[in-house]
Amino acid sequence: MNGYAGGYSGYGSDVPDMVKQFVVYFYRHIRERNIREIYSMYEVSFVKLSERFYKGTTWPEVEVIADLVERDHVFCLLYKEMYYRHLYASMQPTLDQRIASWENYCMLFSIILNSQVNMQLPNGWLWDMVDECIYQFQSFQQYRGRLSQKSAEELTQLRQCGRVWDAAVLLNYLQAFVRISDISGVLGSPEALENFHESEGYEERRSNVPRMMGYFSLVGLLRVHTLIGDYHAALKALGPIHPFQKTKLYACKIAGCNITLYYHAGFCYLMMRRYLDASRAFNTILTYINQVKQYHSRTPQYDQILKKNEQMHALLAMTLALCPAAQKNLDEVIMNQLRDKYGEKVTKMVRGGGEGTYEELFTYACPKFITAAPPALDAPTANTNQEVYRLQLRCFLGLVHEQHHLPALKQLLSLYTSISLSKLGSLLDLDETALRSQLMLLKAASMCKTWSGEGGALAGTLQPAGDIEFFVDVDTRSGQEVVHVAEAKPVQRQNDFLVHDIARFDSILKSLIASEAPGSTPRALAPPAGAY
Amino acid sequence: MSPSTGYTAEKLPELEVAFEEQVEHGTYDLDACLTLLRLYSFSPEHVNINVISKILIKAMLQLPSPDFALMLNMIPERLQDEQPLAALIALTQHLEGARFQAFWVAVDSCRDIVKSVPGFFDAVRAYILGAICSTCQKVTKGTLADSLRLDGAPLDDLIQQKIKTSKWTTASSPTGKTILVLPKNEFNVIRGTDSSQSSHRGYGLTDISGVLLKAQS
Q1: Which residues are CB-contacts of A324 (< 8 A; sequence separation ≥ 6)?
Q2: Which of B73, B172, B187 is closest, CB to CB, to A447?
Q3: B32 to chain A: nearest residue by CA?
Q4: Given pLDDT bands bounded at 50, 70 and 90, which one contains residue A492?
Q5: Could you read off the pLDDT of A55-87 as tens digits, one per residue?
Q6: Which residues form the PCI domain (chain B) (predicted)?
Q7: Are residues B103 and B151 in the same domain?
Q8: Domain span at residue A255?
Q9: What is the C-alpha to C-alpha distance for residues A243 and A246, in angstroms, rounded to an integer?
Q10: Among partner residues B7, B132, B204, which is closest to A171 by beta-carbon distance?
């Protein structure tokens, strides 16, 4: 396993004592199922030691430390999981290292799937495994797609590496975790669910690993399917978890998992034109981020959280531009944040003709799509990485373009309570046939499949979601076609503006007072919510 | 070592046969269709463009559900630019944009393809009728004829049937044109101003005074 390049001979003696101790104790705590200690070593000590001894380089090879841990097979796999995660975070992995990390995940997953493991591992780590494995999968596809930069040797190696980081194999692993964990059964029975929430998967006599891997794999499946542009299957894969049914959400205990869940679910809803559900999902998670982000300001994930936060504001901006009625799902705070960040862009998109803005925001905020099929290795000039992204963008802009006349139509309609089709047509410079089409298109755009409280993430009923109400009638006396209109009244928001500004004034005042009395207000740092 | 498979190309022939049965029996299974497209995207060497075109026709007939659009997200651009897929995409764009006359013109040039799925024309007309019924309370017989491309006896039969089963009635204009009065539904009425009672969880004035008091303290 560890025969690849590196030349670490004699490295063992260079391992600092602190690191040796870390490995020894880490192994002992894992053997003793001491979950608190494992958690703290994983979450705190590992990060600190990495920072101190292995910045920009790798941890010691597993061979070097194996004797310290009685060459325990499973521990060595776990060690390598962390080893490669650190490697990916600090340097550009080579093809050999990518392959070795994949093989390590395969071995680890097979053990969890096929043998009765009895270890307890922190749920946060298990989520990190699913998350990291998908990240490395994504990274491999990007790497493989850049064929033009490969040496002949690398191409030969790529040809030989078969199903390494293969999308189908990865999906099968995730599905297998869902199956063996019986997570659907647990979330489906009120009794088991209560027990699950209480124990968080940590039970006296059994391992938490298979069950929690099943839970996190549901979110993992959502993500992988989203990455290949299969939005229906993505939401379907969530199975028993529903973003709007809080009782079944364990995800909120782990910020990364929760954000992954809502970001991808929200994106899927947006692509499926379910704008009300999209805005609801983004509202939920943006509110959550506002609440928890202070606890993560010193963790390695902080930058990621902030980035996703910004991306989801961009997605929300597009959602509102396509469906202004989706605003009704937003809380004040989120609405104000959005106005501050994207007010101008939303106006631009809503006015129509803002296709450039849509493209800019989509490109900024979409997931890093991957091309699941291997590239044609014999035509090494091609770069397949952008294919799926370009396809998603094309489909999305196609929809935007289809609707680009609607803002002008809506604006004009809102000036009338009734107007004849012929007059409306002359104002818009459209013949009656084209105008009828636009009216029917506007009507279709004002309906939106929306979750109505029952069923899975895909379930829903067609609900009105327009900001203008109208119908076409024929006047039986004149024989003329007439459009009858009523504008859906916008929500009164003056008080929101006032409260927003008062609160801002309040916080300025507070910070002024605080700066006058230095050191008087030490900010209490609460421990991360639901750390494990 | 590898767990049992649900995503591998070996399943393709079996799935293709099952899909042909959907076509034959007039059934539709979105999940099965998407699975086929996913497997094609995993192993492009197995792509069967005839199957894809039939899948797309089935999806077109699900409008206004966005199945067709969802599938396009999984079909590579170079295939989308190939015939007959390009023609099917144009047809669907006409339907979604409610450009029904343009649809009927375009369909003339790909009759052979769409006929590969039995029941195509009935399903398309049902969709067009649905779009009209959710937008209009009344419609002239002429507009209906143009949108559905039906006239004479078939159109009259359809209207008679709708009068019987769907509460349509007829009226006539001063110039003698027939006007069809369509039943009201959730979408072709103005629902009043109930949208102003939004589900919004906003602050009220009392909250402002609270904030003001806090600011003073």
Answers
A1: A350, A467
A2: B187
A3: A233
A4: low
A5: 888 888 888 888 888 888 888 999 999 999 999
A6: 28-186
A7: no
A8: 166-400
A9: 7
A10: B7
